[in-house]
Amino acid sequence: MKHAPLVEQLIQAFTCLPGVGPRSAQRMAYALLDRGRDEGRRLADALHGAMDGVEHCQRCRNYAEAELCPICSDPRREPGLVCIVSSPTDVLAFEQSGEFRGQYFVLMGELSPLDGIGPRELGLDVLEQRLREGQIQELILATGTTVEGEATAHYVLDLAQDAGVSVSRIAQGVPMGGDLEFVDGATLAQALRGRRPFQS
Amino acid sequence: MKHAPLVEQLIQAFTCLPGVGPRSAQRMAYALLDRGRDEGRRLADALHGAMDGVEHCQRCRNYAEAELCPICSDPRREPGLVCIVSSPTDVLAFEQSGEFRGQYFVLMGELSPLDGIGPRELGLDVLEQRLREGQIQELILATGTTVEGEATAHYVLDLAQDAGVSVSRIAQGVPMGGDLEFVDGATLAQALRGRRPFQS
């Protein structure tokens, strides 16, 4: 006997969260029991709501509660410009930059045949279909720079070229405001290769 | 627009947990949405179960699902020896030591008049009643060594003396296996004052 069974179950359940070990889980359970029962109930309701109510957008595969996500159903976004990203958090990062007025296609992963993640798992058949429909004029690749990200980017490039759609890739180089001494060699090499004429 | 509303609600709800800021909350929400919907539902059920089903033991005030907690209803525990602790986690710490075969009284806090925590809030009227009933032979004080812990210890001492029950306090000194250089001065001073004859 350590905890009351319901408390033990709650602690166990908390450990399913990323970065939460047995000790943090215990702290969370006791914090809610001690002085946050209403917050605990709200969290439970929010969990049920999201686990059951959040699906994927039919168009871009991002999380959505309706058939289309808010971005895909926004008439002010250009449907001809589509940015390919690996995950919903990448969409958030772009949205926070405020720079992009096109739409997204969210792969929800990257090609990794050994883990059983092939083109179908990433919805690339859906993308292929959309490319063939002719509404997309430019595809912007923004997948990661890992081996899987590169493989995915090349697969998408092939699809786009087959459909006659032009493809670009977001620039790789040194981050804004960063100190050069903290930039890794691979990034610096890429920044050198991608150098552009300097204009006043 | 940042997240889908249900996702936003879930992220918000996660920030009620101790040590969870907006970024960890987002990571948790996406982790469950991406590949842990069943775990998310289990966590929701565990939360509802614990928030609604966990009450306080009528005897020791620790968390319990029935009228008595497992320790108070265990006939092998000595009812004459009662250890006074501030919180349920203190009970766990003692139980893990495997040293204590008596029962507990869990204050669920410490005296702090400025925060509106007086003797009644800590159930000290219940303790007083139990001390008068005559079943308790020794009270072991194990409240914290803060100002509030000390004040609480002295209040309980008074109650016990009024009822003619003997009171002891757990030893304060250097922790086992600890290096002296990492022990604070107040603890060392206490360890010196509490020195005992050394026996072979």
TrEMBL record, chains A, B:
SMART domains: TOPRIM
Every Toprim domain range: 80-175
CDD domains linked to this entry: TOPRIM_recR
Annotated GO MF terms: DNA binding; zinc ion binding
Entry keyword set: DNA damage, DNA recombination, DNA repair, Metal-binding, Zinc, Zinc-finger
Database matches in Pfam families: RecR_C (PF21175), RecR_HhH (PF21176), RecR_ZnF (PF02132), Toprim_4 (PF13662)
Known role: May play a role in DNA repair. It seems to be involved in an RecBC-independent recombinational process of DNA repair. It may act with RecF and RecO.
Protein name: Recombination protein RecR
UniProt organism field: Alcanivorax hongdengensis A-11-3
Gene name of the encoded protein: recR
